[in-house]
Amino acid sequence: MLELLQPVCKALSVREASNLLSSLSALSIDLKRMAPGTVDAIAQQLMDNMDHANVQDLSDVVAGYSMLQLTPYCEDLLQAVSKQLAVADLSRTWSYRVSRMAYKLATIPNGAPSLQALEALCERFGVLLRSHQVAELPNAQAVANMMWALSKLKYAPSHELATSMVDRMVFLCSLPGQQPIPPNISSLLLACAQLGLPVKQTDIESLVSMLFSSNQVTAQVYTNTAWSLAVFGRLHNQLFDALLAQLSLPSTGHAEMLMASRLGDAGREQLYQALTWLQPSSSASADQHEIWSSLQGKLHRLGPRPMHIFKRNLGNNPKLCSALNQLHLSFRARVVIQSYGADAVLQSRGNKAQPIIVTLGRPDCIRNIPGRLKACSVQKPPAG
User: Fold this and answer.
1) Side-chain-facing half-sphere of 170: CA atoms under 13 Å
2) What is the average pLDDT value for the chain, to the nearest integer?
3) Are the beta carbons of 38 and 9 closer than 8 angstroms?
4) Cα 15-20-24 angle, rounded to 5 deg
5) How far apart are CA 104 and CA 10, in angstroms?
6) Distance CA 66, CA 21 (A)
7) Backbone dihedral region of 175: left (phi > 0), alpha (psi from -120 to 50 degrees) or beta?
8) How, if at all, do strands 254-258 and 250-251 pair?
9) What sign results for the dihedral spanned by CA atoms 345, 346, 348, 354?
10) How far from 206 is each of 221, 308, 360, CA to CA, in Å?
11) What tens digit of pLDDT does each residue of 341-377 get?
12) How many secondary structure helices (H) and strands (E) does the chain include?
């Protein structure tokens, strides 16, 4: 059957080609080995007819995009899909398909859709969140997938859309049968933290309460939640203690193993970063330091802090060090912050302002994300 496909690919419509691509992807067939040239032929046909693609066709292409990674049309086809998606009629597209397309686009290695395509998906999702038709309202999985995808694509939605997504998840917590599962909650909180989106204290309390009410929580859910709340500045000693206590319980289905035994390096690093955010200042009371030391001991019993291999050294960037010197800014180099890839923490003179996280997205670009660390020592930059 595969050998018969290639000669007829040129006669396929965009609907047939996209449907075929999605089906072959679902079958996990190695076409490069079994039928060389077939995927190239399908991709070429899609390129030639992309102007006629509707939302269903675009969704199928995105769903089967993993099949196109080794074709010469890979990048061009993604651009064509993005261009068509930006102008497509999404008025009849439900939340499941919108969030699924965003999710699939976020999982494409070494590629990203256009801003216009993301704006179109976000606009439609916002319309659905405001719908008065119950059937059109996104469920918890759709909200979590959409926010996760935007986080992976490093695209911060508008304040209105972000607030609506959080509000929807919180509202679903009160609806039996539609309540979010723990991974939905932690995905939402983690994405908001990574994108720097504010979440109200009352909403955090509702979501965390829902999370703790479940007995099907994984270790990753707890670590993501702890880190996210630390970024929001909403983590406190009692809550962190409760999260550590949950990680000290036997793993579901494996009574002989603690849940913490399933933690990887990334999860343990999240917990240690959260602990750092809780560290009291030197002027804090002895009781506060004692409480923090107790938390530190409990975390140490769950496992040591992972060792990191630093790929970049800010001190080796003479132009940046010179600029920091001219601005009279001190910094702490080689700082690891989960999902930010920070290069340094800048501290204002006199320690009167919050530290600023510096990340080098490109050699010529510095992106500042304030308020991400507390109680960190700083060093003077080396001479430029």
Assistant:
1) 16
2) 81
3) yes
4) 155
5) 26
6) 10
7) beta
8) antiparallel
9) negative
10) 16, 35, 36
11) 455 556 555 555 555 655 554 333 344 444 443 333 3
12) 17, 6
Q: The pTM is what?
A: 0.78
Distance CA 161, CA 168 (A): 10
C-beta neighbour count of 3 within 10 angstroms:
9
Residues 6+ apart with CB under 8 A from 5: 20, 35, 38, 41
Examine the pLDDT at 315 and tell me if it is beyond 60.
no
Neighbours of 227 (CB within 10 A): 28
CA separation, residue 270 to residues 18, 71, 105, 111, 376 (Å): 41, 38, 26, 27, 16
User: How many other CB atoms are there within 10 angstroms of residue 280's CB atom?
Assistant: 18
Q: Starting at the edge strand that comes first in sequence, how are the strands of the sheet with 356-362 ordered?
A: 330-333, 344-347, 356-362, 365-370
- The full DSSP string for 96-163 is HHHHHHHHHHHT-TT----HHHHHHHHHHHHHHHT-S-GGGS--HHHHHHHHHHHHHTT-PPPHHHHH
Which H/E stretch holds residue 298?
helix 286-302
Measure the CA–CA gap between 141 and 99, rounded to whole angstroms: 9
CB 321 within 8 A of CB 381: yes
101-115 pLDDT per residue, tens: 999 999 887 778 899
| C-alpha–C-alpha distance, residues 138 and 334, integer Å | 41
Question: In degrees rounded to 5, what are phi and psi of residue 129?
Answer: -65, -25
Q: How far apart are CA 269 and CA 303, in angstroms?
A: 10
pLDDT: which is higher, 25 or 85: 85
User: Per DSSP, what are the bridge partners of residue 330?
Assistant: 347
Q: What is the pLDDT of residue 207?
A: 96
CA dihedral for 187, 192, 194, 195, sign (positive or negative): positive
* Average pLDDT score over residue span 213-217: 86
CA 125 – CA 133 distance, rounded (Å): 14
Q: What is the pLDDT of residue 32?
A: 64
Query: What is the Cα–Cα distance from 264 to 274, expressed in whole angstroms?
Result: 16
* 349 contact partners, CB below 8 Å, separation of at least 6: 328, 329
CA-based nearest residue to 80, from 53, 120, 42:
53
Structure tokens belonging to residue 8:
């007829």
> Residue 185's closest CA among 243, 122, 228, 240?
228
